[in-house]
Amino acid sequence: MTTATERSVPKPVFTDAEAGAKEFPDSTARKFNYYSPQKRKQTHYEDVTVEVQPDPRHYLSQGWLYGFADGRGGYPLDWTVLKAWGSDRPVPERGPGSGGKGYDWPAHGWHEFRDPNEEWELSLYRYNANVVRQVNANVEAAKQAKAFEQWSPNWTRFVSQHVGAWMHVDHGLGLYLFANANRRGPTNMHNTAIAVNSMHLIRAAQDLALYQLTLSEEVEGFDGTAHLEAWNADPAWQGVREVAERLTAIDDWGEAIFAANVVFQPLIGELFRSQLVMQAAPRNGDFVTPTIVGAEEFDFSERDLRYTKALYELLTNDREFAEHNCRILNGWLANWVGLTVPAARALQPLWSQPDAKPVRFEDAFDRVKSRFAGIAEDLGLEIPKELER
Amino acid sequence: MSRQSVARAHQKIQELSWEPMYHTPVSHYGTDYTFRKAQKKDPLKQVLRSYFPMQEEKDHRVYGASDGAIRGNMFRQVQERWLEWQKLFLSIIPLPEISAARAMPLLFRNVPNPELHNGQAIQMIDEVRHSTIQQNLKRLYMNNYIDPAGFNSSLRNFQNDYCGTIGRQFAEGFITGDAITAASIYLTIVAETAFTNTLFVAMPAEAAANGDYLLPTVFHSVQSDESRHISNGYATLLMALADEGNHQLLERDLRYAWWNNHRVVDAAIGTFIEYGTKDRRKDRESYAEMWRRWIYDDYYRSYLVPLEKYGLVIPHDLIEEAWNQIWNKGYVHEVAQFFATGWLANYWRIDPMTDKDFEWFEYKYPGWYDRYGKWWENYNRLSTPNGHHPIVAEDVDYQYPHRCWTCMVPCLVREDMVMAEVDGQWRTYCHEACRWTDAEAFRPVYQGRNTPNMGQLIGSREWETLYHGWNWADVVQDMGFVRDDGKTMVAQPHLNLDDPKKMWTLEHLRRMPNLQSPNVLLNQMTDEERAAFHASYVRGGPAGRFARPE
């Protein structure tokens, strides 16, 4: 006969510690009470993002604890020259006997920004997982249908060189502009939206790179390294590359996001993706590339541009600094449009490369200029004369 | 994706990086380390095509468990003693997580290896995941646990409370100062590689033993991302070791990061695990036993020591001293006692210890009762208002401690307290290692070497000083730790919610003597008084006892 020794495990205990079991002060106070929602009710997104990044202007009574070598800690508001109401008020000084109070929440207008996409972990993984699944499915379906056999040598070359070159733009901006900027914004809502934007671009770059890998395996004679030569030496790409590199060199995070998403993406990104690749591909027997490039286009036009507009609209309508912000943004607009338009025009030779031609470059460029002008007007900004150069 | 295709895909995405030809990316963050370009491989070969669906699947499991917990009435079995401490933990931890995301750009311009940048970008978005999934867990607790007070005001409380301030080092240390010190050594080499074991593995196990299986669900999902981050840190460390000029800085940073993590994480997690549990089975591991296994054996002996042959100077003395603090000097018990002494300045309820707890402590830590038993009996006796003050203002032979200027945990192991005049102020430190951190490590010159990128310790570092001379009721009101009737405190030194008369209110605090900042008083003393005070302080303890007459 064997005897079983009792295993040592924690025992379940009935504690009745569930909501509503008793009534006492605060027993029904089941909302985060440290911030005001943008609309009538607090959203799930707000609950998981607002106030995670502290601010000594309202609650952070002991201030930042670690500083850089110059003694500044946290997220200085002057990492951009843009301002939201309250930005110029000094950080409350606390010392012996001062108490801990700062200004009433939110203390300044930066905290009023909410990402209209309501991005947090659940939404960003769901969205991006869906995109990569769809992209995979599209490529797989094309492989099974032998769709790449329809491609002419010219189109094959176009995809290897020019669609391939674009992934370098995505990768560079994703890492060195957007991921970099996720340390720079004044609130968690800004930095989370920016981090998600970064992942869209890095994912899009990888989508294109892996697409190239598939094509190298599926299409005879497909040169999987041609994108490097195009990016490094093709004169048509050097203007884009110069602007992309210049974007990663911007010190001010507010300028970097603005220049990338308000100027560069509409005038060059959409010009290349929507007006060239997605227009030309079907006429050249390619129904796959537009779905991959289109996924990135959707990232930008439906999500990244959306939060960008919300971010800057708040500033151009700011109750204290609207004029200041508009002046600066108009200056940035003129400067970056002036740099971007020549780079866009330098892409013009690409329009003549496919056998079946897309819409004319000038018509395509007119469309994106018109789209860009609409974005600028929505933000209350002036259309710079540099657009017509 | 098959393993083979992942390897090929990872190889392909290496073609994405490019050297700037026209403009150099902005460099916002400096370091005193030097790196040579080297082709260190990203060991995990993560590609977003497989990464996003993997994370989504992990989310499905977490959120499925969350639904199951609510449908299955998990909160009917959750120990309040445990959940109350989560009000502190879950107010702190989303900030370190999101700070780790913000830390990644500190490495881009300083670590010249594009392959590692890919891993760092994935770590960035992992950390966004961790921060928001933890906020979501707290939201679920707020909605479903019996007492939402403290959860509902979580992030304001955390930003005002001295425990939150202690915890914030485990976030701000990642994002400021020398980029490599912060984002690599402090964050990935020490915090993630060593201390996430106790944070995200040991503590969830204790949660499960207290009826809460959601904390393990969320935190094990988080921990499954940490191996990626540990690899990021390891690759950067090997690159740093390749340059001998970095060895002095590595030695400095490892000493600072190790000691600070020990002071902060062991204080908090040790308290949660030892004093937040109702599981008093004699064969369940104590925090000291967990620490020995997870940190001493797994981290120190298996991870750090093998790096010695590459020239890394390992702080053997501080690792042994951390163990000495935990095992011989009662560090965790001293901290828990202090948190309970100051219950009124916090935003969670602290359950008194019972005979069953005493028996367990005595079994696991022989001699515990002689040191701490009497004080906890007093805590129990004074837990409901009955004409007396909260324990901090009663005569229970407990000397209110001085703050450590560096780690901001008070100087609880009295004999180790060090005093120094630094930057024109008399400061107290809990240990010589903390004095060294402030007075020597965080300086623009280290051992005669210019370290212009090293950060600074800033801020109002003693909480008590902000409220010097204030009435306690005003202190608590100023911090906002009051329930919705406008008078009952969020914090209570017991778990009884049945009888309103047993709950402390602002009126009870109004009768207390005013709060005094030990540091303000220290700086008002003459040199002789200060020397005498120090001589007496270091003869005090254990358990906060005043020094006995010689």
Automatic annotation (TrEMBL), chain A:
Q: Which UniProt keyword terms apply here?
A: Monooxygenase, Oxidoreductase
Q: Which reaction does it catalyse?
A: propane + NADH + O2 + H(+) = propan-2-ol + NAD(+) + H2O
This chain belongs to which protein, by name? propane 2-monooxygenase
Which Enzyme Commission number(s) are on file for it?
A: 1.14.13.227
Q: Which domain of life is it from?
A: Bacteria
Q: Where is this region: Disordered?
A: 1-22
Q: What class of enzyme is it?
A: oxidoreductase
Q: Which GO terms describe its molecular function?
A: monooxygenase activity
From TrEMBL, chain B:
Q: Which domain of life is it from?
A: Bacteria
* Record-level Gene Ontology MF annotations: monooxygenase activity
Entry-linked SUPFAM superfamilies: Ferritin-like (SSF47240)
Enzyme superclass (EC): oxidoreductase
Q: Which UniProt keywords apply?
A: Monooxygenase, Oxidoreductase
**Pfam families on file:** Phenol_Hydrox
The record's catalysed reaction(s) read: propane + NADH + O2 + H(+) = propan-2-ol + NAD(+) + H2O
EC number(s) reported in the record = 1.14.13.227
What is this protein called in UniProt? propane 2-monooxygenase
- Organism field: Paractinoplanes atraurantiacus
